[in-house]
């Protein structure tokens, strides 16, 4: 099973974040520009929350709030599930499944070093399965 660190090594190291006092509109614009479904909410180097498209849909759109007048801190998820570099892909998959989330910030100590999406995890699982199938086919053929 691959580790979180191994998955991060295949991705860009860039952290896309926004401050908690910025308007939700700025976050949605940034998500669109960067092609991501969630942003880390940070005060300096400290992770204080995460804001996803799901948060926007449920807490702004469905409640008739203004994304230009609402600060991110009012709708962000403050209880962020995180993982560490040594955690396994299997642990991450279990966490996103059980928590019904799509993004996992990766912390080394208190420092954010990356983010894994459910897409990253699925890709890793598919690659592992492909390797297992290749090994079994070679074994059968020999």
TrEMBL record:
Every CBS domain range: 9-67, 76-133
InterPro entries for the chain: CBS_dom (IPR000644), CBS_dom_sf (IPR046342), CBSX3_CBS_dom (IPR044725), Diverse_CBS-Domain (IPR051257)
Pfam families reported in the protein's UniProt record: CBS
Record has 4Fe-4S as a keyword: no
Entry keyword annotation includes Cell membrane: no
Keyword set, alphabetical order: CBS domain
Domain of life the protein comes from: Bacteria
Name the record gives this protein: CBS domain-containing protein
Lineage: Bacteria, Pseudomonadati, Pseudomonadota, Gammaproteobacteria, Lysobacterales
């Amino acid at each position: 099973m691959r580790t979180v660190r191994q998955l991060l090594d295949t991705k860009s190291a860039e952290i896309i974040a926004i401050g908690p006092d910025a308007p939700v509109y700025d976050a949605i614009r940034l998500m669109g520009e960067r092609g991501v479904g969630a942003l880390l909410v940070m005060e300096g180097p400290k992770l204080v929350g995460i804001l996803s498209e799901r948060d926007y849909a449920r807490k702004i759109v469905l409640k008739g709030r203004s994304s230009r007048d609402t600060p991110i801190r009012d709708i962000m998820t403050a209880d962020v599930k995180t993982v560490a570099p040594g955690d396994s892909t299997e642990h991450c998959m279990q966490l996103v499944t059980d928590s019904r989330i799509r993004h996992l910030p990766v912390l080394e100590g208190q420092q954010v070093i990356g983010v894994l999406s459910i897409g990253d995890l699925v890709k890793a699982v598919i690659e592992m399965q492909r390797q297992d199938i290749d090994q079994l086919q070679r074994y059968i053929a020999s």
